[in-house]
Design goal:
Elements: E1 2-8, H1 15-26, E2 32-37, H2 50-61, E3 67-69, H3 82-92, E4 97-103, H4 110-114, E5 125-128, E6 142-144, H5 155-163, H6 174-182
Parallel strand pairs: 1-2, 1-4, 2-3, 4-5, 5-6
């Protein structure tokens, strides 16, 4: 089976994430998309605790076919690196072929991903279009998903709107919005 790993903080998961997942399956790029929430971000990004992010991600993908949440990184100690995760999953699931999907916004810093693990470039990467971020630079084994509907929202935008007391309706799934409200998340 073709598995696209979709890593991220998912802080919070938004409708753009759902768009990416459905596009990958509908366009037969992947048979399944495995969402891979990060436990500790390798670039020191501040995030909500894992239990909130995982709960929101579960709500965001509930009922979607061909998607699952892969918790491998959540059970590791320290900082997780994409290469180590991809190797571990490839060994654990040898009957699957793995690729990784990232937004085009990640390309500008992708050199940081491969500084410690240049072998990461041995895996196929699909690059999903994000508004205001061109498909550059592209590295070996990267496929730009040109023609896909561009993701125009971000988790940062959702957090900022929420901190300003503005509506996030339509930017996150209704169940995620309720969770955010019930737990008073993302207020400054």
């Amino acid at each position: 089976m073709k598995i696209a790993l979709f890593g991220g903080a998912f802080d919070p998961p938004h409708t753009g994430h759902s768009q990416v997942i459905s596009s990958l399956v509908e366009n037969q790029i992947a048979d399944e998309v495995w969402c891979l929430p990060v436990k500790n971000h390798s670039f020191g990004k501040n995030m909500l605790p894992v239990y909130h992010r995982l709960a929101m991600l579960q709500l965001a993908v509930a009922g979607q076919l061909h998607v699952r949440i892969e918790e491998y990184e959540l059970h590791q100690e320290g900082v997780n690196y994409t290469y180590a995760t991809m190797m571990a999953l490839s060994l654990h699931y040898p009957h699957h072929s793995f690729s990784f999907v990232i937004g085009s916004d990640n390309l500008k810093d992708f050199h940081r991903w491969i500084e410690k693990h240049p072998q990461l470039l041995d895996f196929p990467f699909y690059i999903y279009p994000r508004e205001h971020f061109p498909f550059e630079p592209l590295y070996p084994h990267m496929t730009a998903l040109e023609g896909m509907r561009t993701v125009t929202i971000s988790s940062t935008q959702v957090r900022q709107l929420r901190a300003q007391g503005k509506s996030i309706a339509g930017l996150v799934e209704p169940a995620v919005e309720r969770y955010i409200q019930e737990h008073a998340l993302y207020f400054s």
